[in-house]
Amino acid sequence: DVKVTQSSRYLVKRTGEKVFLECVQDMDHENMFWYRQDPGLGLRLIYFSYDVKMKEKGDIPEGYSVSREKKERFSLILESASTNQTSMYLCASSSGGYDYGYTFGSGTRLTVV
Amino acid sequence: LAKTTQPISMDSYEGQEVNITCSHNNIATNDYITWYQQFPSQGPRFIIQGYKTKVTNEVASLFIPADRKSSTLSLPRVSLSDTAVYYCLVGDGDTDKLIFGTGTRLQVFP
Prior knowledge:
heterodimer; A: mainly beta; 7-stranded mixed β-sheet; 53% strand; globular; B: mainly beta; 6-stranded mixed β-sheet; 5-stranded antiparallel β-sheet; 11 strands; 0% helix; 52% strand
């Protein structure tokens, strides 16, 4: 079964900490995405990547950065975590093209205290 | 930017057919329309995808009119386990970005 695996289901971090959220996919997909999901705000795109070492800003990139050193791995970095970054973070991958079929990970619920 | 809207919530009873519509007034010409199901504390799960007319798989049907400005997810004979949030996903005609719908919370009652 194809998978997108997020390294943690739940994380609690302190304000100001540097936080790494890891995502690995085993489908050889070119495209990978990071979303955050908040009640009443739906899914919002943070960053995405169409290739190794390539990244593009999504709709809400402020306070985040990403890294894609290998095709299967896409990391989301919170340089200095703040309480307003408490959220559910979802990683997804797709093969690209017009028949977008995202495969999502199970999500990481991050709480910043 | 495409505005992709869905009803906030819907209620149904087991065994009924449920139709959830997504309005997307500026969909990209070549993009498919995709629907996802999400349970609490899980990532969205792919349900069905289509470009035009009607698509059917083992869990749902998707109806897309000729102008593609909307799409309707049809769940036949829902069960309690279909209680979830349903999202459509379309490409924006101006930016080519993928836009998730606002999500519809479906509650199925016994």
